């Protein structure tokens, strides 16, 4: 293998079009599907162990030292912190779903050309941010279906993340739609030409270093405030308009729950 994904992006980020970015994601998802097919969890997916082969121009998942059966969890939390699923950070075992979370972060990295949380130390503060739903900001111009797939993969609730088979099928659909639809191809190619991805590279070894973490007194994982807002504002309000004005005065046309009132207060403060 010639170089890892991080070094590949450092070298080629300004040359890559969305077609190539989607293909990279497809390669990695396919590689993970082969691991999950063997009922194994990788446990340590990050851009430092995604390897590019010049021979066939494809990406593979390397560093299988911590890969093991899904029903035999490790005693400690091991990995590269920005890629570790929030439930694993909080002390739960690694699962197929925690690998999917790491894929979501990688998909963002492929789209942005940047390392996740590159300016932050890999410490308790970052762990709390991740558990409280903070995620890297998706760059403007990201294809909508690709963006939605990222958000599904890094959902705080592991049961809401796609299974590897569904993820593999979906990325294939996105790739085929892009390849077969000349309008999409032309629009995104034009966007690629006009947009320069602001990449913040660093030589810090922490980007490539996986280690053992043990955090205590962490809250339960949750999605970020933006996602909660979307759910809240998308819910229909239960109201009616009576014909008689007296009935209108007596009626309750909107009766929010205490939880909704609390969330609305947070939005408008």
Structural features, described:
The protein has 269 residues and is mainly alpha-helical. The protein folds into two domains: 3-222, Transferase(Phosphotransferase), domain 1, CATH 1.10.510; 236-268, no CATH class. 46% of the residues lie in helices and 7% in strands. The protein is built from eleven helices and seven strands. The chain has a three-stranded antiparallel beta sheet. Strand 3 (50-53) and strand 4 form a beta hairpin. The longest helix has 20 residues, at 18-37. The termini are far apart.
Features:
11 helices, 2 domains, Transferase(Phosphotransferase), domain 1, disordered C terminus
Write down the overall mean pLDDT.
79
Q: Specify the biggest β-sheet.
A: 3 strands, antiparallel
How much β-strand is present in the residues?
5-15%
The string of secondary-structure elements, in order, is: EHHEEEEEHHHHHHEHHH
List the helices and strands and how they pair.
Elements: E1 3-4, H1 5-12, H2 18-37, E2 40-41, E3 50-53, E4 58-61, E5 68-69, E6 77-79, H3 86-89, H4 96-112, H5 124-131, H6 144-153, H7 164-180, H8 182-194, E7 211-213, H9 225-234, H10 245-250, H11 258-268
Antiparallel strand pairs: 1-3, 2-5, 3-4, 6-7
Helix pairs in contact: 2-4, 2-7, 4-6
